[in-house]
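[Automated response] Your request has been received and processed.

Submitted sequence:
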Amino acid sequence: MSISLQRYVDITSGVGGAAVVPARDLVARIFTANPLLPPQSFISFTNADDVATYFGAGSEESLRAVFYFSWISKNLTQPQALQFARWVNTAAAPLIFPIQKNGTVTANWTGISNGSFILTMGGHTFTMTGLDFTAAASLADVATDVQTAIRAQSGGGAVWTGATVTYSSTYGGFLLAGGATDIVTNPLTVEAGGGGTDITVKGLLGWFPSAIDVNGNFIPGAIWATGSAVETITATLTSSAAASNNFGSFAFLTNLGLTQQNVVDAATWNKTQNVVYVYSQEVTPANASAWATAVSAIGGVGLTLSPALTFGITGTIASASNVVSSMVSNAGITIGTVVTGANIPANTYVTSLVGTTGLTKNNNASGSATEVLTFNNLEFPEMFPMMIEAATNYAAANSVQNYMYQQVAGLTPSVNSDSVADTYDALGINYYGSTQNAGQIINFYQRGTLMGLATDPLDMNTYVNEIWLKDAAGVAILTLLLTVSQVPANAQGRNQVLAVMQSVINQALLNGTISVGKTLSTAQQMYITAATGDPLAWQQVQNIGYWIDVVLTQSGPDIIATYTLIYSKDDVIRKVIGIHTLI
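Generated structure:
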């Protein structure tokens, strides 16, 4: 035995400077009304196969994912994640989708005489016990027995007493739909309980466990989708960004059939965020002029022309039915394809293919007829700038990208003449255009610009670079505040803020966000002088790319450090003019 050394020397160990604030991933977030995605939620995928597993291989979500993940940039980088978020554009009842490939069969049930489970829905929790399936002759009988047990819980109100349970051969399990829409209290959960045989598991109901998203990794399972009232686009964007701002651009599925006002609302919300996200929206030749005019003064929104890829097929429809039959063929039609016709309501799209000569759609026909239906093939040119943004690695040297002159497979050029290009250029609308040299057709994205006023960043590359720079600066400063014991309100604290900002500036110089040696106009020189009060500041911006200062001011009890960074943005060359003089 001896006296402890700590009696004389007591040393505490720890890691200093360990507090790190994560930077945002500038990936795409796509808004969908698909009931498979619970309201007020989003899910992240790292590959197209997982998207197909979750939404179905023929869904618009899956088609977009295949396009998104297939692109590789000139810097040999590609998007690392794609997110989908829910927009509740019609009131939704609580829904449970079973585990995919649940594989239940009647024989799994006929030996169960005391089944049980616990269900929480609409703010009420009930335990169903003593469920006897020994007399079930089919899976439809099983569904009826479970439905009867749920409806018997009258204390839960209409969401319980009007609930339906049906067997789905697609999933090999059972679908639950609550009996009321609109505002339905969260949560919606399923668990084992009540003794007897647990019927929630895979191979029976398939309602447990639920699918989860762990750090961007999708783990399959049952889907518990709570009910919701209708949400405005503004409310949806606000709540989605509040849940996680870890994305850099957003768009909406084509089959949502956005109106001009929807687009204006989304663009207006995005503008209020002040260069945090890119809103990418497709337009068609029919609405391009009107929509461009409506958002022309709203910064941060990029309109991209979608090619008019339509074809007509004769089919038979019946009033109040969602089925189209007696088609010559449904080849070339995919789930999510928009369909129009004399007896087809607006915003109608294909929900499933039936054999080789039929299909179903999301809306019922308004009349009965055999008529030519027009189908609009799905391409997603508005996703291309989102893919470029998501594939930009700002940690690498010279990594920033010009959004023009980018090429991708899977897009049909929507502009192939100077006159049409002039029309859309004047409107500020981007497009996938076609030119040729030596008989070789060359297609690429044009022109890589955004809507807005002269005070808004109008080049996509400049705008996205500022998204990254603003986030990097915020991360660096918050990390400083979390790491050190204090940032003193004196010259030392000012220098600390300058030091962490310098590390961000150095990275911006490395990746190309800040441009060095760009000649400034007289107006730019005068603006910098007025903004800084330093007659030599513009020379610093021109020669080394930036000027920065930090000023300490008092606001009530708080002392605020305000930094001002003026930097030379990374402009790009879009056209080269040559003069050949022959002597």
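Summary generated for your ticket: DSSP finds 13 helices and 26 strands in the chain. Residues 18-89+230-307+379-458 form one domain.
If you did not submit this request, please reply to this message.
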